[in-house]
Amino acid sequence: MAGTGKSTTARTIAQSFADKAQLGARFFFKKGEGDRGNASRFFTTVATDLMARVPGLMSGITEAIDADPAISEKALKDQFEKLILQPLSETTYPKALALVVVVVCLAAIAAMPRTRHWNWRRTCATREQELRPVQVSGLRLRSFVVF
Fold first, then answer.
1. In the chain, pLDDT over 90 holds for what percent of residues?
2. Is the pLDDT of residue 143 over 90?
3. Per-residue pLDDT band at 35 (split at 50, 70, 90)
4. Which of 21, 26, 39, 130 suits a disulfide with 102, CB 3.0-4.6 Å?
5. Do strands 134-136 and 139-146 pair parallel, antiparallel, or not at all (unpaired)?
6. CA atoms within 13 A on the CB side of 53
7. Which residue in 97, 106, 88 sits closest to 145, CA to CA?
8. CB-CB neighbours of 76 under 10 Å
9. Which residue has the higher pLDDT, 109 or 29?
């Protein structure tokens, strides 16, 4: 399936959400690309992207980092709760906001031997579950994962 345009299609989907001002964040896993090859920087990247889109979110994320400077090294569940869920819950939204986080696992899977595909898919699916739909007053955040 190499060269059939899967990654291009995923980027087009992300761009489509961006064109509608609905892209909250995106993360493209890519095997062998350092931090993009695993989930260690997944939530820190999503949090950084969301700060650019959600007014007032920076102060909550800054507080989380000040309270725990090593948060980026903690379990992914803790990163999600402290860098994303808690700051989003504490932010006031002047108007209703609906955002999508696009997560792409295609390139990483395509580069693997078939025997490892399912392990990587399971890893990506776990990240999607951790980025469960978030509904707080004035904001709806959902994820779109492409395998």
1. 25
2. no
3. low
4. 26
5. antiparallel
6. 27
7. 106
8. 15
9. 29
The 3-class secondary structure across the chain, one letter per residue, is CCCCCHHHHHHHHHHHHHHCCCEEEEEECCCCCHHHHCCCCHHHHHHHHHHHHCCCHHHHHHHHHHHCCCHHHCCHHHHHHHHHHHHHHHCCCCCCEEEEEEEECHHHHHCCCHHHHHHHHHHHHHHHHHCCCEEECCEEEEEEEEC
Q: How many CB atoms lie within 10 A of CB 137?
A: 10
Determine if the pTM surpasses 0.85: no
Do the Cβ atoms of 19 and 97 come closer than 8 Å?
no
The tokens for 112 are 């693997």
Number of residues in the chain: 147
Handedness of CA 46, 49, 55, 59 (dihedral sign): positive
Q: Which residue has the tokens 């800054």?
A: 62
List 135's β-bridge partners, or say none. 140
Q: Which residue in the block uniquely carries the two structure tokens 């006031």?
A: 92
CA dihedral 81→84→87→92, nearest 10 degrees, is: -130
